[in-house]
Design a protein that fits this description.
There is one protein chain. This protein is an alpha/beta fold and 721 residues long. Helix content is 28%, strand content 19%. The protein contains 20 helices and 26 strands. The strands form six sheets. It has a seven-stranded mixed sheet with strand order 1-2-3-4-5-7-10. A six-stranded mixed sheet has the order 11-16-15-14-12-13, sandwiched between helices. A hairpin with a 4-residue loop joins strand 23 and strand 24. The radius of gyration is 26 Å and the shape is globular. It starts with a helix and ends with a strand. The structure holds beta-D-glucopyranose. Beta-D-glucopyranose (BGC) binds next to loops.
């Protein structure tokens, strides 16, 4: 009997669903009153003008009432070059904005404060250029290494995204400009992005794919959101009743406007009712050919006039648009001017680049290089003098300057060392090495004390791999994870010629480096580091900057090891892709299924050594605080990103081995020790229970793990909740 009672109590306890505090956007009654007053004065035709594009990057205004057009601009890491009203690149030179490191690099800093500074640069430059909405940040989950747009996004981990995105949005919006969080939702591949239907469990949706967007809306207060091109559970995302009406506008009380991605609306009635507020696109790509014939233009007008759609549906959209306009001083107010391409903004670009660079490997402390001792350096690889800013599709930027690694190194050692350059490979449509270029590189490496090879992915300009050999670019995924242009053979030959070879990898994600990784002494991952990248990389190579970036994704040894390819589906058939790997994305898969990655999520070395000690846990209700001490026991000042993972010892559903639930970037002088305190709110221990359709805390034992990466756990302690 006693046993039965205990069992009942346990079962009951398991189903205790903790009180859910509703996380929502707040209404602003003062702004709403102004919106209502203006709405009353608008004719139906004027309202319709406001809900669709009237040029490639603007939507219609109503001058008679002082309602301006909305001017949007890409993108996530710099204000895009001017396109005039109809997609013609303007070459007047006034659009040379700051090229910040890409989203993936920003996230590699694991420093939310930098997210704010990054956003503030974008907001300020957008304002100076007369833009109202900056089309970023992009935060889709890195589900597969092949996604051509991973460089624009942040991570495989929803918690890291949530923390990084809030600062970015606040930074933009504190400048009085709107951020536009994109692409909602599950735009995790570019192949067939226009129509592919994504199927996933409710648990995967809630635990992996929604949290970043929720944080952006609820904590970041994003004014606008862009729907994704693809479908989700059968309906296009941009007017997916469940995603837009129920979750975004319902559960999260999103007050802002939902715009379509360019040309992502394919019907009038479904889209009007499904929650899209603003149809954007170009007339060129649109079946209607003219802006007046967009789905949300004449066809929408006719539908309301015929009574098929109620005018109140349009009113809700116009309300949202006006709300954003009042919030960002577009109506009856003046804006501060903003600033453009300033030295201060370049400083932010450099700081982000410095903190984003990840030291993956440093055998025998071959790095940092010594400026005083080194007399000859061979710089090898086309990426050493290739500019990246104008690459990647819609996120391209045209900066005033971009420092390449070759320029950075030459400037740094101008008076102390000789630098030779060998191209090593051609960015061309071929995978085989070029024997002549390899021989030149080997000769250069032999003659130098140190060789630095710059390789990895290249940032392509056009929307097609084969038109300019692009790999990290919009509209297409990478064909595989192999190193392009014969780089395997090149790097191997250079290392054989000079064991003091450092490999610097560019790009929006991992490559299969198994052919030469074992014999490489040092490897750096630099993403696309922005206009100051060449200086930042040089400073890390020579130790003026102590690297502190950490991987925001798991680096698999082979493509087949990554969960979308092993357990799930990619790229699906011509209609559907099923996310069968479920919540086991990234390290959640590698750790749970004991697959050894090349480099683990959260990995990144420093020129210093950090010592973790004395973990203590305390509890207040179901909120846990972890305290431990962190010391810099090396000789250089530096920063460590301490990561806290939670493991549910026993659960009624299969849960990942561990999940990131807190982190902090801690800067320490040599010899300095700090007490680090990380908070774990009750939500940190929950999973999404599909039976009750709620987040659930199952009482029991949890392990709190503190580490320098998901694979390098330094301290652990358990606690019962
Ligand atoms: C991209 C969006 C971008 C838009 C406008 C689309 O092709 O998917 O991210 O903001 O174009 O350039």
């Amino acid at each position: 009997m006693k046993r039965k009672n205990t069992l009942n109590a346990f079962i009951l306890a398991c189903f205790v669903i903790s009180v859910q505090v509703k996380a929502q956007q707040k209404n602003d009654p003062a702004i709403d009153a102004k919106v209502e007053a203006l709405l009353k004065q608008l004719s139906l035709e004027e309202k319709i003008t406001m809900i669709h594009g009237n040029s490639s990057f603007t939507s219609g205004g109503v001058p008679r009432l002082g309602i301006p057009e909305i001017t949007t601009s890409d993108g996530p890491h710099g204000v895009r070059p001017e396109h005039g009203r109809d997609w013609v690149l303007d070459n007047n030179g006034k659009d040379s904005s700051t090229y910040l490191p890409v989203g993936l690099s920003l996230a590699s800093t694991w420093n939310p404060a930098l997210g704010y500074q990054f956003g503030a640069v974008l907001g300020s430059e957008a304002k100076w250029r007369g833009k109202d909405i900056i089309l970023g940040p992009g935060i889709n989950i890195l589900r597969t290494p092949l996604n051509g747009r991973n460089f624009e996004y942040m991570s495989e981990d929803p918690f890291l995204i949530s923390k990084m995105v809030v600062g970015y949005i606040k930074g933009v919006q504190d400048q009085g400009i709107s951020a536009c969080i994109k692409h909602y939702l599950a735009n995790n591949q570019e192949i067939r992005r226009d129509g592919i239907n994504v199927e996933m469990s409710e648990r995967a949706l809630r635990e992996i794919y929604l949290p970043g967007f929720k944080a952006a809306v609820v904590e970041g207060g994003a004014n606008t959101l862009m729907g994704a091109y693809n479908r989700f559970r059968g309906e296009y995302c941009t007017y997916n009743d469940y995603l837009i009406n129920k979750i975004l506008k319902g559960e999260w009380n999103f007050q802002g406007l939902v715009m379509s991605d360019w040309g992502a609306i394919h019907s009038t009635k479904e889209a009007l009712l499904g929650g899209a507020d603003l149809e954007m696109g170009t007339d060129i790509g649109h079946p209607a050919k003219t802006f007046n014939e967009f789905y949300f233009a004449t066809p929408a007008l006719q539908m309301v006039k015929s009574g098929e759609v109620k005018e109140s549906v349009i009113d809700d959209k116009v309300r949202r648009i006006l709300r954003v306009m009042f919030k960002t001083n577009m109506i009856a107010a003046t804006r501060t001017p903003g600033a453009f391409s300033t030295t201060e903004h370049a400083v932010v670009a450099k700081k982000v680049a410095e903190e984003a660079i990840i030291l993956l490997k440093n055998k025998a402390n071959v790095l940092p290089l010594s400026k005083s001792n080194l007399k000859t350096i061979a710089v090898i690889g086309a990426n050493a003098n290739r500019k990246n800013a104008m690459g990647g599709g819609s996120s391209q930027v045209r900066p005033r300057y971009e420092v390449t690694p070759l320029e950075g190194i030459r400037a740094c050692v101008a008076n102390t060392a000789g630098v030779t350059f060998a191209q090593g490979y051609t960015v061309a449509r071929k995978w085989k090495p070029d024997p002549k270029l390899v021989t030149e590189a080997v000769e250069a490496a032999k003659k130098a004390e140190v060789a630095v090879v710059f390789g990895g992915w290249v940032h392509g300009y056009n929307y097609s791999i084969w038109s300019d050999n692009a790999y990290d670019a919009e509209g297409i995924d990478k064909p595989n994870m192999n190193m392009p242009f014969g780089q395997d053979e090149l790097i191997s030959a250079v290392i054989d010629a000079n064991p003091n070879t450092i490999v610097v990898l560019f790009g929006g994600g991992p490559l299969d480096i198994t052919k030469w990784e074992g014999k490489a002494k040092a490897i750096l991952q630099v993403g696309y580091p922005g206009q100051e990248g060449g200086h930042a990389i040089t400073e890390v190579l020579f130790g003026d900057v102590n690297p502190s970036g950490k991987l925001t994704f798991t680096w698999p040894q082979k493509l087949e090891d990554s969960p979308a390819h092993k357990l799930g589906e990619y790229p699906g058939d011509s209609l559907n892709v099923h996310y069968k790997e479920d919540v086991f994305v990234g390290y959640r898969y590698f750790d749970t299924y004991k697959v050894k990655p090349q480099f683990a999520f959260g990995h990144g070395l420093s020129y210093s050594t950090f010592d973790y000690k004395d973990i203590r846990l305390s509890k207040s209700g179901n909120e846990v605080t972890a305290t431990f001490s962190l010391s810099n026991i090396g000789t250089k000042a530096g920063a460590e990103v301490v990561q806290l993972y939670v493991k549910d010892i026993k659960a009624s559903v299969k849960r990942p081995e561990k999940e990131l639930k807190a982190f902090e970037k801690v800067f320490l002088e040599p010899g300095e020790t700090r007490q680090v305190k990380l908070n774990l709110p009750e939500d940190s221990f929950k999973f999404f229970d599909e039976k009750s359709n709620q987040w659930k805390l199952e009482p029991g034992k949890f392990e709190v793990l503190v580490g320098a990466s998901s694979a390098d756990i330094k301290l652990k302690k358990s606690i019962s909740l």
